[in-house]
Amino acid sequence: MSESTTSVAGRTRPARPQAVLTVLGRERLSPHTVRITAGGPGFGALRMNEFTDKYAKIIFVDPGLGLTPPYDLAALRESLPPDRLPVTRTYTLRRADTERQQVTIDFVVHGDEGIAAPWAAHAEPGDLLTMSGAGGAYRPDPDCDWYLFAGDESALPAISSALEALPADARGIAYLETSDPGEYLDAPAPSGLEVSWLHRDHPGSQPRRLADALVAGPWLSGRADVFAHGERESMKAVRAALKTRVGQGDQLSLSGYWASGRTEDVFQSEKRQPIGQI
Ligand SMILES: Cc1cc2nc3c(=O)[nH]c(=O)nc-3n(C[C@H](O)[C@H](O)[C@H](O)COP(=O)(O)OP(=O)(O)OC[C@H]3O[C@@H](n4cnc5c(N)ncnc54)[C@H](O)[C@@H]3O)c2cc1C
């Protein structure tokens, strides 16, 4: 666990504990998804929660620096040039097994660009994976009458976890936008929940795909519980499509998980500007 502190706006606060895990396995779930299982005693540094969308911030430090985690991030941020600074990438913990001290993370492998996806595509047992967390905010509300899911590949892990938490008699609809017809959903949906796969070529290439399906589709009666996450422009369109439908008493969890053409660092910093707001 890191002992360092970090200074924000003149205040000093303890650095977030870092869990240093060892990669135990890599499995290809589909042409564009790789599952990494990692674990070890470092698991104890993660504060688990009961949310189905629980996520961790994975920390990547330039391997050329030859450092061993946990990292003194505050010191690195002060001393390194901008192009060598540590970066974080946010990933859903598809499974977190406290007894076995293991996490399972499903990475969309979206090409050679980026840091996390190429890392996952080539990770080998024995590699280290450093993260802090867990965050999270959603789990299906058992008092709602029906459930609506909308998302792309990046949201499939969180949607799969939510489906597992639904009662067997739950009803609803899941709109899932993917490139591959064979994309995975590794949790059975309750029989009353219809799964609608929406195909497009490249992630982010059809930002209206989910919203158009939502508008054309039915809106069931009773209190709705909506979980919608994925590419930022797509989520903007989904929010607009839901505006006239989501009413008082309904639950809404909606955010961008990534933005087309932006690294996560740029995407996160734009959230504070009009372009990044959903
Ligand atoms: C709460 C939360 C949970 C998330 N859970 C998951 C998860 O479980 N699995 C998962 O795969 N992602 C998940 N994401 C999204 C993930 O954090 C981003 O996709 C991240 O940008 C990937 O980092 P990178 O280093 O691979 O690419 P970056 O360096 O951030 O980006 C490089 C380039 O790749 C593009 N890119 C980034 N992500 C994608 C993508 N999914 N498809 C196509 N192009 C992309 C960018 O637009 C950019 O042009 C989650 C995000 C959040 C906020």
Radius of gyration: 19 Å
- Which small-molecule species are bound to the chains here? flavin-adenine dinucleotide
Low-confidence stretches: none
Main sheet record:
7 strands, antiparallel
Task: Offer a quick outline of the entry.
The chain is α/β, with parallel strands linked by helices and 278 residues long. It is 18% helix and 35% strand. Helix 4 packs parallel to helix 5.
Structure characterization notes:
The protein is α/β, with parallel strands linked by helices. Helix content is 18%, strand content 35%. It has a seven-stranded antiparallel beta sheet with strand order 6-5-9-3-4-8-7. Bound molecules: flavin-adenine dinucleotide.
SSE layout:
Blueprint lengths: L4 E4 L2 E4 L4 E12 L2 E7 L15 E6 L12 H7 L7 E6 L2 E3 L4 E7 L7 H7 L5 E8 L10 E7 L3 H10 L5 E8 L13 E8 L9 H8 L7 E8 H11 L8 E8 L5 H7 L8
Parallel strand pairs: 10-11, 10-13, 11-12, 13-14
Antiparallel strand pairs: 1-2, 3-4, 3-9, 4-8, 5-6, 5-9, 7-8
Helix pairs in contact: 4-5
Name the features:
278 residues, binds flavin-adenine dinucleotide, 14 strands, globular, 7-stranded antiparallel sheet, alpha/beta, 35% strand
